[in-house]
Each structure stands twice: as C-alpha cells, then as structure tokens.
Amino acid sequence: xxxxxxxxxxxxxxxxxxxxxxxxxxxxxxxAETLRYVTGASVNTLDPNIPGSTRxxxxxxxxxxxxxxxxxxxxxxGKWVFDLDKITGELAESYDVSPxxxxxxxxxxxxxxxxxxxxxxxxxxxxxxxxxxxxxxLGKAQLLTGxxxxxxxxxxxxxxxxxxxxxxxxxxxxxxxxxxYPMIINSKVAKEHATADDPWATAWLKEHxxxxxxxxxxxxxxxxxxxxxxxxxxxxGSPDKPAFFKRVIIQSVPEPATRANLVERGDADLVxxxxxxxxxxxxxxxxxxVISTPQYNSITFVSMNNQIPPFDNVNVRRAVAFALPYxxxxxxxxxxxxxxxxxxxxxxxxxLNGIYPFQQPVKIDLDKAREYLKAAGLPxxxxxxxxxxxxxxxxxxxxxALVKESLGKIGIKVDIQKLPDAQMSTQINxxxxxxxxxGIVAWLPSTDYFYRNFYTGNQRxxxxxxxxxxxxxxxxxxxxxxxxxxxxxxxRKLNAMHFDLMPQIMLWQPNQDAVxxxxxxxxxxxxxxxxxxxxxxxx
Amino acid sequence: MRTGLGAxxxxxxxxxxxxxxxxxxxxxxxxxxxRVLPGDPAVFFASGPNAGKEEIEQIRKQMGLDKSVPExxxxxxxxxxxxxxxxSMMTGQPVLKDLRERLPASLELTxxxxxxxxxxxxxxxxxxxxxxxSVVDHGVRLFCALGVCVPTFVSGLLLIYxxxxxxxxxxxxxxxxxxxxxxxxxxxxxLSIDFVLAGDFEGWWAACKQLILPAVSMAxxxxxxxxxxxxxxxxxxxxxxxxxxxxxxxLSWRKVVVTYALRNAILPVITIAGIVFxxxxxxxxxxxxxxxxxxxxxxALDALLSSDYAPxxxxxxxxxxxxxxxxxxxxxxxxxxxxxxxxG
Lengths: 539, 344
Known about the structure:
heterodimer; A: alpha+beta; D-Maltodextrin-Binding Protein, domain 2; Dipeptide-binding Protein, domain 1; globular; disordered N terminus; B: mainly alpha; MetI-like fold; 0% strand
C-alpha cells in the first residue's frame, strides 16, 4: 500500500521552511525611518470628539492636529512625564493671561499652515473652539471643567490673535486647551463638508482629517491599522523641526502575548499595553528598553456604595479598609508594578499634604477590622458581592480571590461577580453595585478636580455615591481659590475627610509599562496614557 | 432523475426562497436576544473620562435606543429591506462595509484551512480504514485525538512560539499581510487571488506565508471529524459487495480503492465538510484573535462584548445566509458525486 503518503503535510512543512529564505531585505531602509507601534485596542475615529472614541484615537489626533497650547514635560524619578504646570505654545507663538485672570490672549505663529497648505488663522481657531463647546461632542463636557462653555467667550482680535474670556479666573482653563478635544481644524475645509443636519461636520471629520499636525493620514482601516506619514512642513515641536519618523504604523494586535513576541523579535518598535508578567520577563532578559512610569493621574480602587446597607455605615467601610490584604493584592494583580496608595504613616494623624491621590494610613489589621464591625453592629459579618469587569480580569481576578479570602476571616462572605464590560458600566451608572473594583483617570489631575468629579453629585463617576455636603462645598470652593496656601489647606481637609469617611479605598496607581526597541528614545508618559508619536525618535 | 443544469438552478433558487422564512426568524430572534441581554451599550460607549448623562442620551439616540422595542424592530426590518445593516459604534463604519471588508479574510482563511484539513484527513482516513486495528490506524487515531483536544488558540500560540518566536521561519503573526507590503487592487478580496491577478508574485507569497500558520492551526482542529468519517464510510464501502466483486474480477488495487470504494465513501465526507465549514467560520474567532486576523468572527466577538447591537445582528444574519448557501452547495456536490441524488 504505497499510494498514501504524507505529501500534503510535508509540503506544508516545506513551505514553512521556505519562509527562511523569503524575508524581504528591500524593506530594511524604510524600516529605520518607520515606527511600528502595536496596541490591543484600535483607532475607531479620526476625530477624538466622537462619543465612543478610544485612547488610540486620542493619541492619533495629537499627531494629526495641533492645539493652541501643549503640556511641557518634566522628569519624574528619571523618567519623562507630561508637566501639567508648564504650558507651552503649539499653534500659539505666545500667550498672555491678564492680571485678573479673566482674559487669555493667544498670538498665532505666522508660519503655521494646515496640511493642505493654507495658513492657520484666528478664524479657524474660533470655529474649532466654538465647535468644541457647541456641537454635541465630547469636548463640551471636558471644556466645561475649565469654565469654557459658550462661543461668546472666543473673540477674533486680528487674523493672528484670539482672545478667550472667562467668567471667573479658572486655573483649569488654559490646561484644558492643551487636552485632546480642542484641536484646531481647518474651518474652510470642514465647512465644505458640513450639512444642515450636521453644521460642525462631525460625520465627515470622523473619517477625514483637516488639521495642521505633524502627521498626515495615509491609510485608515478602523479595527486594523492606521498608517500616517510625516508632515514635512510641521515645525511646532520643541526643537522646531518636523517629527522624527517618516512613517508611523499603528497596528491593532489583540493578543497580548503576540504583542510581547513582536516587540521582542524586533518586528514592533514600541508597545504600551502588555501584561505585567510579560513586561517582567522582557525586562529581566535585558534586550529591550522598558520604561515604567506610575500613572500619576490614574487610580485603582475598591469602591463601596455608600447608600446601600451595610456600606452606608462608615464603620463597615472602615472594617473593609483594614481587612484588605494590600501587599498580596498588589503583588498578585500587578507584580508590584505601580505606586501603592496604602500603608502610609501619618505621624500626627493628619494628611502629609493636600495632593490627591495620596497614600492612606491603612494596612491589613484584622483585629481592628473586627472592632469596626462590632461598632457597626455586625459582629458576625454579612454577605455581599464583589464585582469586576471582564476587561480587567487579568488584574482583578487574582485580586478578587484575595479579597474574598481575607474578608472571610472577619465573617464577611463575598461572592465574586465577573461582569461583561457593558453590563458593569450600566450597573455602575445605575448605582446598583454594592462593592467592586474600578479604575479612574483624570487628564488634569488637580485635587479639587478629583474630588468634584469623583466624590460629589449623583453622576456616574461618583462611584461610591458619597453624598457629603461639607466635602462638596470645600471641593467647589477650592476650584476658584487663587491663593496657593489656602488651596493646599483645602486639599488637606479633603484628604483628611477621605480617610475619615472612607467612601472608597484607594489601592494603587498602576505603572504604564512602555516596552521598546533599545534604539527608541524620547518616550514620554502623556496624560492620555498613550504614546505621542512626536516625542519618540530612533538613535 | 432530473437532468440538466437549468433544472438544478431552478431547484436551487427554490431552495433559497424557501429558506427566507428561516432567515427572517433568525433576524427577529437575534434582534430580541440582543435587547434582553443585560448591559446598556450607550453607557458603555459613553465611557470617556467626562461623559455624563447628556452624552449617554445622545448615544442612545444615535443608536436608535430611545424608541420602544417594537418601533426599533420595525425600523430595523425596514433598514434591512433597504440593505442597511446599521452602523457599528466600535469602528464607526456601516456594518455592511465592515462585513464586506472582513468576510473575504475569514473566507480565505477558512477555505485554506478546510483544504489543508481535507488533504490531510481523507488520506489519513483511507489509510486507517485499509488496515483497521493496525499500528497505522492507532497512529491516525492518536493524531486526530491530539488535534481535536488541543484548542485552536493553544495550537495557534504554540505554532507562533515555535515557527515565529523560536525559529523565526514564519512572518510576524499579525494580519493578512506584512505591513510593509502594498496591497493589490481589490477584485475578489481574497489576497491570494488578487495578487495573482495583479501579477505580483512576491506579494502573493507574502500573503500565503501569513496564511499558513492560522490555517494550519484551524485545520488541526477539524482533521479529526473528517478523518474519522472517512475511515468509517471507507470501512463500510470496502466491505460491500461491489468492492468484493471488483476485487474478484481482478481490477487493479488502485482502481478498486480510489474509483469504487472512495467514490462511494465520499458522500458523508462532503456533508461533514459542509457542516465543518459553517462551524469553522463562526468558531475561528480565537484563531482570528491570536493572529490579529481582520475577519468577521473577531469583529462579532468585540461587538458582543461591548453590546454593539448592529454588528452582532449583521454577523448573525450573515452566518445564517452562509449556512443556507453552504447547505445548498453541499447538496449540489452530492448530486455531482452521486447522480442518483438530486436536490429537492
């Protein structure tokens, strides 16, 4: 019986063997001038203002559009991070803030041009800012946090000067203009594509760009990849020259293990969202550059619904805070890659400063926890559910198991509930979850901003549903406090209240681990937690 | 016995028409199913750092969720009637466009995998049937068991680890083509065909290289059912009277096995291949994920996780239509393999 052979199987093997020979050497030259960035999510719109846009879309828009101003950068423990306090001009050559803080005047660069070659004028700036506060887009809610709410506030003085008027001196007005949303659009082009139903051309700008940024879209395949090429005329970077890379490929690779393989094999240059375990092993091999920056504008916490019994009792919340196995959770979830927000020592029992987030003086102490339970009138404990979403399972799952085990020791029976992301956000929005873990990010991390957005009001981001009139009043007042010392004092007060009321338990700030080829330089941790392609270059 | 291509076509058309009620049922059922699933997509998509109630309402309106369910259903059906499958919130594109772009990728992968599986499985099955109980038979059984018990994402990751990571033989396992290769003008959407049409054989080879690992990991998984069914029906066929007669009149061994036994044994294999094909199309989601393959299955999964209704509904409708088509093709193949069978 000779006729059956493994010919098909062997031909597959032979074909795979042939791949060795067929690696393409012709691509070698372009490779050095190309940045290949791989990510788990994808760019789903070219206008970051569209509801539902992803972080990848934010990062892309930073490179395809310019804003009036940009954040500077500073070193934090030897790593470059964005600097909230240093605002430099991007399209603006310079800017002035009037002594009473109510007028911001921006003078535009004379040489700034849109990607189609037409000059950037104050009219374009006004149209773009008007769009941001008028159109039903994401920018509206963001600019609100900087007292920018109406088109009347933006005034064209001359073709190169624009003035912004504020109702109150708001320290977040200027930084807001450096965030993702208030990008400057070529208004002539956009208007051509506006319709009666869509006067701000949101539909067209979703799939096209009309900016003045460092990169021009070459191909855009939502869900797969975006390729951009350098805008040679762009000179808004700090050293006044075009961006380093001629091309940037932003590619979606959903499997984290594959992303790790790609960067290790040298096929990808840069990746930010790897699993902590992969980062650790890549770091230990020492071939690649790993830059780990604590995400100093983000927090992971365990939240308790302050309106649902038994978590409406402050002693129950305190009991939980002293029953969590912080160190084990930190190791199991993140391999210790981050900045802990537990285990502080407050020598005089008061917060060390007025900055949020801060390290709280909590650590596992089961006796103390039992005392608090007794004080709450629940010495035998109770039953509850602990929820997390599937998207965060790799870190939240080991954490949840440890929470369950530890709380079990003081009589609190915990059921772990793993929810699909959409279901989790719905339940959070409806305030139905008693006890869960979540993470938050603020682009403009100032103390009053955190407290106003995450600890007041009946809105979704008030995760713990805390309703404390005094806390809300202090946070609201602090917003417009021009005096630095008084602001600091308000911050300390808020932090002390946080520890006392324990609405939710801050755990840590996870690291942003950027893994890159050793030749890549200039990586900076940005407020949008993605890579700004203009920052990086190759040695 | 019906004869002529015309009659076959008429019958095939009739079969397609008669499947319309089933498709309609699938349509309505999926629609309702998506609505009863927990999770509000508007809240999910309004998950930016500052999306409040207003943004949620706006997305709800955009997705048409502000209307009552019966109203939504009527709108949905009339949209479908006009060939509009709605818009995906994830990609921001019309679902029809997304599916049209991604379906060729899935089909190309599935066809290749099925071809590899058939080329491997039929000889294996025949071999096992010729010597039942022998070492060869046990070997085939072991191979099949291994193939079917290793999930596709495990075999996929293993293949990547060995051929890409360790040996460096395979190209990087991301997508259908090396990011540095330019794409051919699109005719069929099948890269392996489009490159040939464009006369770009270097590109064709690059596309084929990308295709090998995912197709092999999918094929490994379905070799087992195909080989087992081949073996079983070959056994029946080999033991039947006509094979004994053929042998006794002294026909060549090859003619007996291939022309008489295999031809008769192939019918069930075709049926199973059709079923396997349909299931593979939907079930290759893990392979698509592992290899970043821009196909329909991974698209549908992402949509499902984020409660993005329109793509999921579009995907289910697409799968149902394909299933109808595949069944029809199987029946036609039946007719070719055995003229006594006709589609009816």
